[in-house]
Design goal:
This protein has 104 residues and is an alpha+beta fold. The longest helix has 14 residues. It is rod-shaped, with a radius of gyration of 25 Å.
Length: 104
């Protein structure tokens, strides 16, 4: 079995493809709007924030501004709570070890 490491092979085996940050030159935000006024409104918003963008004017299709919404409200990292170890005091307040109380 052949074993070598390179960035292309690692991306394929891991199942993850690295993408550029949204709103940059490599990955511009793409929005679809219905009117010319909306194009001007969104263009000024993108330019004021310094984001790269592509606005498509499609009068017969519904408006899609999901990339803009994602830029305006980014995901916040989740906090992971510390797990109780087997020998830590039980969280119920009994004073016993977790493994002898609620961990059974």
């Amino acid at each position: 079995m052949k074993s070598f490491v390179d960035s292309d092979n690692r991306q394929r085996t891991g199942g993850f493809n690295k993408t550029a940050k949204l709103g940059t030159e490599k990955n511009p935000a793409v929005v679809h709007v219905r009117t010319e006024e909306r194009v001007k409104e969104l263009a000024s918003l993108f330019e004021s924030k310094g984001w790269k963008y592509q606005i498509d004017l499609e009068p017969d299709k519904p408006e899609d501004i999901s990339d803009l919404e994602r830029l305006l409200t980014p995901l916040k990292p989740k906090r992971v709570e510390k797990k109780l170890g087997r020998n830590d005091p039980c969280s119920c307040g009994s004073g016993k070890k977790y493994k002898n109380c609620c961990g059974q």
